[in-house]
Amino acid sequence: MRGSAEPEDFVPLNPPRYHILVALGTETRHGYALMEELEKRTGGRVTLLPGTLYTGMAKLLADGLVEEAEGPDYELRGRKRRYYRTTELGRSVARLESRRLASVLEVAQEGGLLDADPGEEELA
Asked: What is the pTM of this model?
């Protein structure tokens, strides 16, 4: 979906693709570093297995939200690591999806769904 695509064309994003874009941010990273960054940012609450990561990455590449980038020459088991970075369109999509999710949480907050910790709710 390259060319004249608009950020709105990609929203809502599925969670793995959103997490990949957020973990990339404005950095250039290889796949394993992406998985580590995601785990670090979420305190281990979200992890992506390699199959999910690379399936999501393939879709993001095909859509023009991520592109391959130059990185240090580093071989692991005889294979050169591939590095990725978000495109301007990818950053716009991540910002739009973040605003969409924030508005969903705002509605949940207004509806009283985020007031109590589930462990604190009284059982009737």
From this structure: 0.82
